[in-house]
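task queued by scheduler; priority normal; single chain, no ligands, no partner chains; default sampling; output format set to C-alpha cells
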Amino acid sequence: MTEEGMADGKTRRERLADDAVLAAVALAIVVGIGFAVEVDVHTTMLLVAAGGVVGVELLLSRRVALVRSVWERPLVRPLAVTAVVVVAVVGAFVAPSLVFALLWGGLGGYLALAGTVLLLGGPPFDGLLARLRAEDSDEN
C-alpha cells in the first residue's frame, strides 16, 4: 500500500485504520451480544472464518478501485455494521454457536490482517499479488 492521497485527503493507510476501527466496534457489539446469550462457539469454525477473511481480502485486493468505490458510498459502512448486528441477534436464536464463531472469526481475522498491514506498512502478500497480476496480464 502506498501513502498516496485520496479524493477526501486520506491516505490508504488512514482508510485502513478507519476500517479496522469500524470492525473493532462491530466485533465489540457482537462479542457483547454473544456473552449476553452465553454462546459457546465452535473453535474450528472460528478459525475457518478467520482464514476465509484473509482469502477474501486477498481476492478483493486485486480490484482495489472497484471495492473502494463501493465501500466509500455513504450508506455502505453503517449498513454493514447494522447487518452484522442483525445477523448476530437473529443468529442468537437460530444457530448461535455457528453464527457467533463465523462473526467473531471473520471480524477478528480482519482485525488481525489490518493490524499486520498497518504495522508492517504493506500487505504480507505483496509478492503473491504481483505474481497473480503478472499471470493475468500474460493470459490476456
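post-processing summary
- The radius of gyration is 17 Å.
- Helices lie at 12-36, 43-60, 64-71, 76-94, 96-120, 126-139.
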